[in-house]
Amino acid sequence: MSATLQGGQVQRYSLRLQAGDFAAVRIPQLQGNLAAVVFDPEGAVVGIFDQNGEGQAEVVTIDAARAGEYAIQIAMFEWDASDVSYTIELTRHERTQYRPADRAAQLFESWYEPGGPGAVLVVMQDGEISYQGAIGVENSDGHRPLSLQSPIDLASVSKQFTAYGVALLVERGQLRLDDDVRRYLPELPDYGTPITVQHLLEHTSGLRDWDGLFALTGRNIEDGISIDDVVAMAARQQSLNFTPGAEQRYSNTGYVLLAKIIERVTGQPYDLWATENIFAPLGMRECSLERDAAIPARVTSFRRQFPEPISTSTERTITLGSSGLACSAHDLQRWIENYRTDPLGGGQVQRLVTQASASPTGTETDYVFGNWHGRRGDHAMVGHQGLAAGFRTSVHDFPDDHVRVIYLANDGNDATYERVRVIENLFLGIAPGPIEAPTDDYVPSTQAVLSNGEIAELVGRYHSDEIEADYEIFQVGQSIVARHRAAGDIRLTRQQADAFSSDKWFVPSLTFVRDAAGRPVGLRIESEDVGSLFFRRVRSGGST
Fold this sequence. Notes:
The protein is built from eleven helices and 29 strands. The chain is of the alpha+beta class.
C-alpha cells in the first residue's frame, strides 16, 4: 500500500492478531523521515520504531501478548517537513518463536530482504555456532549474495587489530607503551607534555578526530583520504583538546598514527606487516587491509535503498589503523578465538590487550587496546562497533557467558545497533525492558531573528590554519549561513547571542568570539569529534 503524509498529519493502520502471534511490517520511506508507534488492543504503547531515515525502511515487529486489534501510527519525524511518501506492507504473520536461535532467525529474516542490501550474523555459545545467517546482496548488481565469506569493511572494529599489532611489537621489544610518539613521528608538534603510545591506544592523547576535521574541509570518506593525509593534518594541529592523559575522548586520529608508527618501527607498509604477522599466521584469508588484495571482491555499502538503491564506498579512503580493514564473519570467528586463547602472541600479548589500566580519573579505563570494556546489566562485555559509509558493524564478546556475536551490515541502517542489542539479549537471557510512551513535548524552534546590524557585524571570511580552510558568513533573510567551497552552505540557527547550531553533524555548535571592545575577531566550532577549533576573522563584510 502506498500513502502520503501531509503537514502534521498522522495516519493509523490496524492489524488483528491472536495471542502469541508475531507480525513484521515494512515501511520504506520514499521521501522524508517517519516514526511508527505500535499500540496494543488496550491502547498501551508496545513499540516505537524510528531508527532509519529517508530512503530506508522502518521495520515494525509486533509480539502479540493478547488477542485483538493492534494499531500502527505513522507520523513525520520533522514537524515542519513537506509531504512524505511511503509504502507499508505486512511481510510476516506467524507464531512467535521463543528458543533463542529460532527467535534470532525470525527477527533477522524480518529485518532484511534477499534482493537488497542486508547483513551477516553469527552467534557463538560455548565455542559452538548457535545461529548464523546472511541475507542480502554484496553490491548493486545483485549478482553475489552476502555470505559468511563476504569481506565487509569493519570500520572502527579495525582498531583492535591495530592495537594487537602494537602489543606484538611491545612483546618483541621493538616498542614501549611509554614512548613519546615524536620518537617515531617527529613531524608532530611539541605540545609541552609528551603524547605516548599508550595515550593513542586509550584515546587520551587530546588529538582532534580526523573525520570531523576533514568534514570541515569539505572532504568525506568517499573522496579519498590516506594515512599520510591524516598524519599531515595532525602535524598542523597547533593545540590539543586537553593535556595528554588528563581526559579520554575518542579519536580516530590516534589509531591512524599507531599504524604509521608500526610502519616506521618495522620498515614495512602497515597492510603488508599486518598480513604477514597477524592474518596469515591465523589463516585469515578473507581479511585484508590492502585495496588490491588477492581476496574476493569487497562488499559495497548503500546509503539508501528506496526508491532505487544508491551505493556508497570506502574504496578511495585508506585511513589504515582507525578503519580500512575488510574481513568476513568466517575469519572474525578465528580472530575472536585467538583474542581469548592467544596462540599467536603468547601470554604477555594477551595480558596487554585484555587488562585495563588506570584512566585519567584514577579508575580503570573502559577502552583497552582497541576494545570497549563494559557491562550489559550483570554481563561483562568486550568489543567494538563501527560505522563507515553504509557499513554498520559490531563484534561483541560476553566472556563470562561464553557468548560472542558478530554482526556486519551493508545497508546503511542505523537500526543495526539496536538489532545487535536485541540479538545479544536473546542469548544472554535479558528480557525486553518497558516501552516509554512518546510525549508531545517538541516545541518548534523559535529562532531569534537577527537584526541587519547584528548580521553586518558577523559577516565576513574566517580562516583556520590547522585545517587550511575558510568559511564565509553571509546573510540570508534575517539569518546567517556559513559557506565552504566544498562543504557547501550550512544554515545556522541562533541559540544565544553569539552561539549558533546547525543541521550538519560536523558543526553542531558555532560561537563567534569577540575582543575586549566587543568586535568579532573569530569563530569557534565545537564538536565531540574535533573539540574546539578556532577560525580567525580575515575579512569583514562582503557578499556572496
